[in-house]
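Q: What structure does this chain adopt?
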Amino acid sequence: MATAHLVTPRVVQPGATMLARLTVLVRECTSRTVYRQLAARLLTLQCAALEDVLILLPGERFTPMQVLRTPPTRVSAPALAGAFWRLEQLRAVGVGDILVRDLPEDRVTRMVRHAQVSWAQRVSRMLEDRRLATLLVFMHALERTATDDILDLLDGLVSTLALRAENKLRSELLRCLGGLDKAAFMLHH
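A:
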């Protein structure tokens, strides 16, 4: 559309390759600015906590990042306890109170999606500002989804318990009705 607008008054334009290069350059510059802004919001302790999420502990198969991004899969009391532990670990990183809503939502979503599917080693090889920014928005998103997971698990667990109680009450009621039928039959005859 921009090309058509410039062709009409016969404005000299750069070639398509040059426009593509300029577009990439502007996007990279914008990305670096966003990464720098996010990394500047972190304190030294928060940076260290985010970096620790990428470190594989001795004797473990997965990094804390990989463990924390795995949501509970069953509706049970142990799964609810695990979900609370997960939320507690995410909050222990200490970045939940840092504001990230003022950034472009699509860029933040892309950063979160990239961290969600990437191995911790790949994230650890990013440049420092990009790594810290990616981990910051990723931990924010994980904290929100961990809270939602707890609410979903609690809802499912309460529904299951209520259904069990209702079924038990129904079976006891049917058992009592059988005794009442016998008593009514005896009184009638």
